Amino acid sequence: MVTIIDGVKVRLGVMENLRSSNQTQITMRGQYKNVQIPVLTGVTNRTLCRQINLFILKKASEGKKDLLPTAKAMKSWTSWLQEKNLDPFKPTILKYESPTYGYRQYLLERISEENSLSSSTANNYILIIKSFYEMLEEEKIISTSDFFQYRKSIVDGYRKIKSSDLSIRVARKQIPSLCPLPKEKQENLLKIISADNAQTSTIIKLMMQCGLRVSEVLSIPYSLFNEDILDKNETSLIGGITIGPRYGVKTKFSKEREVFMTKSFLSEIVELKYSKTLLERLSKYKIKNNTKVPPLFITKNGTEMSKQAFYSSWYRLKVKYKSVFGEEFTYRPHDLRATFATELLTIAMQLEPNNLEACIEFVKYYMGHKDEKTTLKYIRFLNRQSLASSVAEIIDAIAGQEFVK
Q1: pLDDT tens digits, one per residue of 88-111
Q2: Which long-range contacts does 299-308 make (Cβ < 8 Å, 24+ apart)?
Q3: Does domain 175-405 sit in CATH 3.30.1370.10?
Q4: Are 338 and 367 in contact (CB under 8 A)?
Q5: What is the spatial distance between Cα 339 and Cα 204, in angstroms, rounded to a whole number?
Q6: Can you give the three-state secondary structure of the chain, one letter per residue?
Q7: Domains of the chain: which residue ranges?
């Protein structure tokens, strides 16, 4: 696993020539300065690891003070390279297999799909990778033309700046809007995932049917969903399953909350837990991580499923959706959580039409909202949808009358 060791002390200056091969103490010539820099470890490609740390050292010698963002960009990139098994020094024919263009596409997917990475951060990451390749060209290790192309961009209608085709457009901040899946899209997605592997199917259902976030789902421990809970609960709704840091789950604001879980869905999860595939992956995980609590979702290599791995699966589902249904699937994973909230609220309001306060509290509880204002967004959304639907019906009726005349 790629990690960052921050605060490593180094001395910048010119080193005196060694007087003999037995000399153990290094002395500096003239003035020098002591600095602290972040260093990357765990990069399987040793040449790459050495070059990255030299790159960070070079930036420090040029006077750059805060190098942690540089190290974070390099950690993200090298983790992605290792997952894709790509050689950073080898040019490719296909762009999506390229260590530069492929990583750029991954960042774009994180912006649009996950909505956890801002476009400004993504652009900063890719510019750092570009700068790294420029250093490699200075050292005569690679040619940058194999990995990206320079171009001139015009800003404000007259200013010309030198950029590259790796640049990511920085979007203006917008208030995110709710985008739950309509019934038809929900049904289509469930048809798609039913033919997919059980792990991906369960992850998506935990978001769409329980309202969990991606980070929450991927951090669920193997022991959370136990078959004993099935025996203790006689109703269709399973009670007592709680998530939060105390249970090993990364919830927003570290808040604990109870999970909305039906008995039939819990049975599915228990079946997945004891499937031959997952037990084999669990065995591999325990060998690699002796004392660590195993997660529920494990890759075939016996490692904890990362967000990168999940978003690769999500991208494949979108491609499959288009091939099966002939239309683009433009929704993000977080929209599945919005789908759960709107469905829950709709049903609650149908059951308790005269008790709006209880409906809001019900949804707030299972969504884990910190503030009631967040829950009220779903009320406003449903009201807009209802009004728009009613207006459309009236317009259709008027248009029908006009047609008859």
Answers
A1: 999 998 887 899 999 999 998 888
A2: 304/218, 305/199, 305/218, 306/79, 306/83, 306/218, 307/114, 307/116, 307/214, 307/215, 307/218, 308/79, 308/80, 308/83, 308/106
A3: no
A4: no
A5: 12
A6: CCEEEEEEEEEEEEECCCCCCCCCCCCEEEEEEEEEEEEEECCCCHHHHHHHHHHHHHHHHCCCCCCHHHHHHHHHHHHHHHHHCCCCCCCCCCHHHCCCHHHHHHHHHHHHHHCCCCHHHHHHHHHHHHHHHHHHHHCCCCCHHHCCCEEEEEECCCEEEEEECCCCCCCCCCCCCCCCCCHHHHHHHHHHHHCCCHHHHHHHHHHHCCCCCHHHHHCCECCCCCHHHHHHCCCCEECCCEECHHHCCCCHHHCCEECCEEHHHHHHHHHHHCCHHHHHHHHHHHHHCCCCCCECCECCCCCECCHHHHHHHHHHHHHHHHHHHCCCCCCCCHHHHHHHHHHHHHHHHHHCCCCHHHHHHHHHHHHCCCCHHHHHHHHHHHHHHHHHHHHHHHHHHHHHHHHHC
A7: 3-164, 175-405
Which pLDDT band, with edges at 50, 70 and 90, does 157 fall under? very low
Query: How many Å apart are CA 180 and CA 381, to the nearest integer?
Result: 10
Task: List the single range of 75-89, 143-157, 299-313 with lowest mean pLDDT.
Answer: 143-157
C-alpha span between 392 and 377 (Å, rounded): 22
CB 90 within 8 A of CB 13: no
What pLDDT digit, counting tens, does each position of 198-242 carry? 999 999 999 999 999 999 999 999 999 988 888 777 788 898 899
Of 307, 249, 303, 298, nearest to 113 by C-alpha is: 307
Residues in Cβ contact with 313 at an 8 Å cutoff, skipping those fewer than 6 apart: 196, 200
The pair of three-digit structure tokens given for residue 62, joined into one six-digit string: 């040029």
Please give the pLDDT value at position 405: 45
For range 363-381, the mean pLDDT: 90
pLDDT digits (tens, 9 = 90+) for 1-24: 899 999 899 887 766 665 666 655
**Cα distance between residue 53 and residue 83, in whole Å:** 20
Residues 6+ apart with CB under 8 A from 89: 47, 48, 136, 141, 142
